[in-house]
Design brief:
alpha+beta; 9 helices; Beta-lactamase; two-stranded antiparallel ribbon; disordered N terminus; binds zinc ion
């Protein structure tokens, strides 16, 4: 069993309930059969939901796991930039590995060179997005975070714990929000799963098809050649994903969210590793989860 959702993020009762359901076979349908109509909550460490007939089935659950979202917020930033036509997705911005803006030094793990928006999402290029954030106000960013419902709980009966900044608390520069490092904004795993669902199903009214295309292709490229390339190296499930890593004291925490198959999404997922970077912890856990899940033998 993974150690990712400890008692601090998932209550022991919920955890044991999940184990009990799994043991009863409710969460682990027979080999080769899609879990139609079944409970669709993952036991551990990933939450997922089925996307059947173009609609989500299953729960936004549980909401007790929340934290800084890190680079997952680049999806929100890209949406705002595209919808507001603030930056062409084809515009190349150069990443030399470090950049100082307004006295703050930003880094990438390595220079990404000249990248467009899709490549910047795939490689999770901080330098691309901090430059792009120069034309994106914090208020505008938050408007799109609200469009993805990151300011709303996922359901009355399954209230999420999360943080969302008030409209008057906009002191942080947009760069901090775009990189998911602004402390007033800490979405829950359930909210992030819901956001993933929206991207998979392209179901926020009014967003342009081109916006969904860039988001999905950026997430797809993250799996084929970017930060999530260890997630599905044999391209078995044709996953699209986005990773996020945040500092936690001297260590790291990380996320990965995604959906599959890219052509006709049937499952959306979101998981969090309470220790370790996305590359070292969240992505390997997601890969293991994918291999053990009901669809592994489909
Ligand atoms: Zn970069």
């Amino acid at each position: 069993m993974h150690d990712y959702f400890t008692s601090s993020s998932l209550s022991r009762r919920d955890f044991l309930k999940g184990i009990a359901l799994a043991a009863a076979g409710l969460l682990l349908p027979s080999v080769g059969r899609w879990p139609e109509g079944q409970a669709v909550e993952s036991v551990s460490p990933f939450w997922w939901c089925e996307l059947r007939d173009g609609k989500p089935h299953g729960a936004d659950h549980p909401g007790n796991c929340f934290g800084l979202p890190g680079s997952l917020m680049k999806l929100v930033a890209a949406t705002a930039l595209l919808e507001e036509r603030l930056l062409s997705p084809n515009q190349l911005l150069e990443c030399r590995g470090t950049l100082r803006i307004k006295g703050q030094l930003y880094r990438c793990q390595h220079p990404h060179g000249k990248v467009n928006m899709r490549q910047a999402l795939a490689g999770s290029c901080n330098i691309y997005f901090v430059q792009a954030a120069e034309v994106l106000s914090t208020r505008r960013f938050l408007q799109y975070a609200e469009a993805f419902q990151l300011n709303r709980p996922t359901g009355p009966s399954r209230e999420s714990a999360y943080l969302f900044p008030s409209r008057t608390a906009l002191a942080h520069p947009s760069q901090l929000y775009v990189l998911g490092l602004a402390k007033p904004m800490q979405p829950s795993a359930a909210q992030l799963l819901r956001m993933t669902r929206h991207i998979a199903l392209r179901d926020i009214h009014g967003f342009r098809p081109a916006t969904w295309r860039i988001l999905q292709s950026g997430m797809r490229s993250a799996v084929t050649q970017g930060t999530a390339r260890q997630l599905d190296p044999q391209n078995r499930w044709r996953v699209a994903a986005k990773t996020g890593t945040t500092p936690s004291g001297e260590f790291y925490q990380s996320w990965v969210l995604g959906f599959f198959p890219i052509e006709k999404p049937m499952v959306a997922f979101c998981g969090r590793a309470l220790s370790g970077t996305a590359k070292d912890a969240a992505v390997p856990a997601a890969r293991q989860w994918l291999q053990q899940a009901p669809w592994a033998s489909v």
